[in-house]
Amino acid sequence: MSDNFSTAIGDTGISVPRAATLRLALPCVVALAAILRLWHLGEAGFGTEYYAASVRGMLGDGHNMLFGAFDQAGILAIDKPPLALWVQTLSASLLGYNPFALMLPQAMEGCLAVLLVWHLTRRDFGEVAALLAALFLALTPICVAVDRSNNTDSLLVLVLLLAVWAMPRAGDPAAPWRLVTAMALTGVGFNVKMLAAFGVLPGFAAAYAVAAHVSRPRRLLHLVAGGMVLAFVSGTWISVVALTPAADRPYIDSTTDNSILDLVVNHNGLQRFVPRAWGGNAAAATALSPLLARFAARGVPAGPARLIDPRLAHQALWLLPLAFAGAAGMIAARKREAACIWIGWAVTYGLVFSFAGGLFSAYYLVMLGPPMAVLAAVGVVTLADAWRGAGRWRWWVPLVLMLSVAWQAHILRPETWDSRQGALLTAAIGGLMLASVALLKPIRAVAPMAAITIGVTALLIAPAAWSIGTIAFEGGRPLARIQPTPDRVGRAVARQNAEILQLLPYLRRNRGDAAILAATSSAVLAAPLIIATGEPVVPYGGFIGTIPVLDGAAIARLADNGDLRFAFVEESSTGGARAAETEATRWIRAHGTRVDLSSIVPGLEHTRFELFDLRRDQPGATPPAGSD
To answer: Which residues pair with 417 in a beta bridge?
Structure first.
């Protein structure tokens, strides 16, 4: 791959020296990435409150931090390894517990990812491709959205990019050691989000197979050794959890048997991809809790066409035609190691996300951000080289630009026409048409390289607008959007949080000497109380309300010992029907006294949860509001 596009800057009529231009470009791209990720950061609230509550539970408690406890009492552990939340906890310990402190690590990780993509692209494809790749990643809407949230994916992306950096290149005498380092870093990624980190492995294996200048048996031996290192690093934290007696650690959320292996294989494995992992009835599982609906892939069914549906494509795939051109360019330029890594990364995650039929969320597409940025950047340089060269290949340039026109029109096709989307479509198509016409029928005032620049700039109008729109309308969700969109589940959860917080003064006045502020049927219901107070709140039903964290006997012991007085039982979001009953909820309903919420807060009679008073010496009447 040559760097002819770099040397052609003078063709655009720009008089600034090439070296000075390139020196200024990278700081500008990084500044743009930082602005998009830091502007008004944290003003939308705590984001994913499940994680935010866990950070509060880990602050100042080494035991809770080691096991990733969700609550201050250390009853429940979150359903992910806690590595990413350790970083957030460190930030909160330095800056105080607030939304900005919890979001800042992800924003910084996103900026570092932009720099790493620049470096990794530069060493194989030159300065211009590197700057374009960094710019494309900085403007990828889903990357901006996730980097502005408290989700764990930003750290996973950064760690996997470090693993790409560690991968050996052709002829490297230290190739085995670099492979081992890459595998160790991928193992660190496993400790961020478990099996989600392993999508890079097929590309890594293929890259080493073509890069290592040793015999096939030795290559295989090196790969086996790398796999052993991967397994060792991946298994460090889960081994600690597995070897700790269940009585000495929190219950592992989203498992029915309190097993860390079940969390890895089932919840964070099969349930993500196989609908039958939910017992053959995914719809019934979703109805158990409003929060589960957040994981729906925006109504796009699994299958080979899932990712090209506009409802998902607008998150990360704006530059898909250029990415195809970049893949072809890598192969044609014989950049075999880079082609294996970046194409392998994109294809593996693309296939997994396309056919995942279980718990799949649109924000997972952040994993496609780096490979799409690199491939698209190489695609631009490939097209520029093709146009400057002689022969028939130069006509691929206007063809790819025209395909990009069609692709942008497909993504921006609104289900209900909106003026903002129409304006973006008009601007993008106008710029791309101008570039295509200038190439097919040269215009004296527009040089070919300037035409390509115009075309690429036009392609960035829509993703840039979506990234900016995400800042204005993020609403705490890690999804990119250009404007507010109806979010029934989000509104329901926000309303539920506001309702339960209205009961906080009553809980505090009447808890007496109870160590636990309240018990809740789900972590969703507990999170706002934990965030607001930092006091022990026990989610006895786990994340979705059906996990047997505590049974009826355990609730009875807490009530008899005076450690617990109040317990919430949540209802589902479907028709007001009660969520699936557990042993704990049955005991609470049988032995507790239902509190009349409207007597505490007027108008609070239509909630999706009920409050029960577990005090054993009650006369049976509902306690009056504000009683002591």
So the answer is: none
